[in-house]
Write a structure and sequence with these properties.
Blueprint lengths: L32 E2 L8 H7 L1 H21 L5 H22 L3 H6 L3 H24 L6 H18 L11 H16 L5 H28 L1 H20 L3 H26 L5 E2 L17
Antiparallel strand pairs: 1-2
Helix pairs in contact: 1-10, 2-8, 2-9, 3-8, 5-8, 6-7, 7-8, 8-9, 9-10
């Protein structure tokens, strides 16, 4: 079917026209738009957001180093428990001081409820520590190390860094970290070591990220300072075990916090999404009234 001279094509379906189905006129590309919904990033903002990844990598590094020190006999469980308890008390006070207790008032949770939860967790963990110590006796040490590495890697993958993605699962991420801590704790000398190790894991992978998120939302400058200090502390601790590992880990942190944001900004300049009349129709009207 050939176009009829003098007849103008209309983009409608309810009228029969003397044009083929795939016919378009010269106005078809007039509605072309590029990068309509493209998001513009600033380098400083991307570096700031990468702090969450740096924090979690350092948390995993500190946790593994702490286990190594306990396994080598260089750190006593009593010393680690005292340090963890003191830091937890300081973090608890800081958590309320950041927002003046507004979050606690909004949630309706009391300090007595927090104390009861802490005591119940500590009592159950201490009571089951002999079981945790002997839980994986029938599994070889190499398998335990491999499972722990995979679980910690999964923890980093599924952790909530603030992105709205389907892969994010805070519950799964925390469970994988605790599973790794139980596996590693089972290779420590005594049940007291296992109890302290699992308690320390809860502090590092559950309580510490909560404090960091509040600092990030309320006091960004303080969050940046804490992130830098935490990264330096992790690197210093790693340097006592392996100088090569410390250099590699420092390179990884610099790549994530500086190089990757730069690459993202540069790649954004090459983005070329096109939108036009060929896009699928989007219903923007609220149709919930038809469901009643």
């Amino acid at each position: 079917m050939e176009p009829v001279p003098g007849r103008r094509w209309q983009k409608v379906l309810y009228e029969r026209q003397p044009f083929p189905d795939n016919y378009v006129d010269q106005r078809f590309l007039e509605e072309l738009r590029k990068n309509v919904h493209a998001r513009q990033y600033r380098y400083q903002a991307v570096v700031f957001q990468s702090g969450a990844v740096v924090q979690q990598l350092c948390s995993v590094c500190v946790f593994v180093l702490t286990w190594w020190y306990m396994d080598a006999g260089l750190l006593s469980p009593q010393g680690l428990f005292a340090a963890a308890l003191l830091s937890s008390l300081l973090g608890y006070v800081l958590f309320d001081a950041v927002d003046g207790g507004a979050g606690r008032w909004a949630s309706g949770r009391t300090r007595w409820a927090d104390l009861k939860s802490t005591l119940v967790f500590a009592a159950f963990t201490y009571g089951f520590s002999p079981v945790l110590k002997t839980l994986t006796e029938s599994i070889s040490t190499d398998t335990i190390y491999a499972m722990s590495a995979l679980m910690l890697l999964g923890h980093l993958i599924f952790f909530d860094y603030g992105a709205n993605a389907a892969i994010v699962s805070s519950t799964l991420s925390l469970n994988m970290a605790i599973f790794a801590s139980v596996c590693l704790a089972s290779r420590l000398p005594r049940s007291l070591h296992a109890f302290v190790m699992v308690t320390f894991a809860m502090q590092m992978f559950a309580l510490w990220p909560m404090l960091q998120k509040k600092l990030k939302a309320r006091t960004p400058r303080c969050y940046v300072a804490v992130t830098v200090l935490f990264a330096l502390a992790a690197l210093a601790a790693l340097a006592t075990v392996s100088s090569v590992g410390a250099v590699l880990f420092a390179s990884l942190l610099l790549a994530i916090s500086c190089l990757c944001p730069y690459c993202l900004i540069r790649l954004q300049l090459l983005k070329d999404n096109i939108h036009g009349p060929w896009d699928e129709a989007e219903i923007k009207e609220d149709l919930s009234r038809f469901l009643m």
